Protein 1
Amino acid sequence: MPRAVIHTFYQRLYETFGPQHWWPGETPFEVIIGAILTQNTNWRNVERALTNLKNHKALTPRALRRMPAGDLAALIRPAGYFNVKARRVKNFIDYLYHNYNGDLTCMATVPTRELRAEILTVNGIGPETADSILLYAFDRPVFVIDAYTKRVLYRHGLIDRDADYPAMQDLFVRHLDEDRQLFNEYHALIVRIGKDFCKPVPRCEQCPLNGISYSLRDRCERCFRVLQNAGQRGKRSQGGSVCGGCQVPGASSR
Ligand code: SF4
């Protein structure tokens, strides 16, 4: 069943939104820096930071290596958490020079599994950023998981609330062909649905994924626990039902 749902999600999303043309970036290096800067902020802010770097001719490994961390932080200020992110960019540049003399084409020769393990050793780069770099900068067939993915999977009953990154990634990898373009498009489409419909308060009524098996209609619309039987179902409201626990005044598990 999960296999059918995973495939149907993609078909429905692609039919609705079409290709997303990810990742926005002129070079693999720009994609990498964008992936680091986009942590905990929206893409518009990242674009402003990247534009600052370009305007100062700083969007190259060599320029970023020479630039003091304080100057870098000032340029990427629009991306937020700029001191932390400046350190993370610097950490990546150190790794790139230490291992590949600053040459991304050398880095690109390393097999995917090994490369992923290496990137994860860079302080401040976690699985989502590492996988974004592998997929969008190095064209590797690696599925990226983010908060939107988790929300959609959980709300459709495909994972538990405490599912970890590898478990969610495995759900896609197990049921899809190992296809870099498919992984590229699928992740971009999930981000689209997360931004437009599967928000903290979901817009299921208008959402193209509504009605697909494991629908939110079988879950409490407040806490998203499965409604086991008719006796647990509370009053109908937009997009679903409310379970008995959430009907208690003041009760909320989210
Ligand atoms: S908005 Fe509703 S139908 Fe759409 S993905 Fe989220 S839970 Fe599913």
Protein 2
Amino acid sequence: MKHLVMKILFSLLFSLLTFFTSAQPNAAPNIFIITTDGFRWQEVFNGADSILINNPKYVGDTAAIKQLFWDDSKEVRRTLLFPFVWKTFAKHGAIYGNRQIASKVSVSNPYKFSYAGYNELFTGFADPSIIANKKRWNTNTNVLEFLNNTNEYKNKVAAFTSWHLFNYILNKKKNTFHINSGNNTLVTDSSSANQFLINGTQQYVVDTLTPTRNDMLTFLTAKEYVQKHHPKVVYLGFGETDDYAHSGKYDGYLQSANAFDSYIAQVWYLINSDPFYKNNTHIIITTDHGRGKKSTTWVRHDMFTAGSENSWLMLLGPKVANKGEISNNDEMYTSQLAQTIAYLMNTNFTAPQSIEPILHNAFIEIKK
Ligand SMILES: [Zn+2]
């Protein structure tokens, strides 16, 4: 009799456990990591630059672009450029990198170009051997592949980027998680009208001279995949801000940044309106490097151009306090983000390379 009672109790306990684990299949937190390439902290915090927006060398129509993005107040100006960030994100999250109020975010690598910047962001390690934006398979382990190798996140990791070199930076040859970069078409297990339209459009707008996809197509490709498959770890990498800056088109640079703000807004809305993501998803937004700080050097970024190491960072989610714009923080580095991403996903990132520690609690403002 005693044995029978124990048996019943154990089977009850077992079914209760099974019930709770199956009732909460998505208990592990989700994350969206979003970047826009080579975008300066100056515009994030001050909006359009007064010298650049008035220079016909950099702007097609100075009067028209000023109607879109100019105001004498820099608080209004930055809100014209990034309405979602300053009206909504700032209320729910934390924004670092305004050097005018002693908040510093920097890249650790000495070279200050994209491959090196994205490598340190995802691998937690500023690799001195990465000296060029070349088609070289990255040998460092990145935090996306690390997460994809855990039980919680297996086959639930997806990356969508405008720049084709991410196939190499995130090492598509070695890794099995979903990587859609440059002009890769969206291939999933079921077809839809949207997917057909996105792939078809992409086919017709491919510029054979630049292997970088239009940001809007990157966004639509990602959105289609996210709504259909609900990945738990998503990376969205946009590229137009850097492209326009290199071509000296300040109007295009501002307009791409403004479009970037609208993509973040749509991601935030998608998270809030989908029970799969709501209340259990973090957002990290940053860039891979800064650019020259002068009105003559803003077009470029490299180890000899002052300002190229300056970055910025936006965080939002259940573990981040909503402190808005942060002032007076100790300097933070892009190389600390890989371990921070793992931390937000309740795990510890380990890899053969040496990984920089998490952003300290005092900076990330963990909710008690
Ligand atoms: Zn660049």
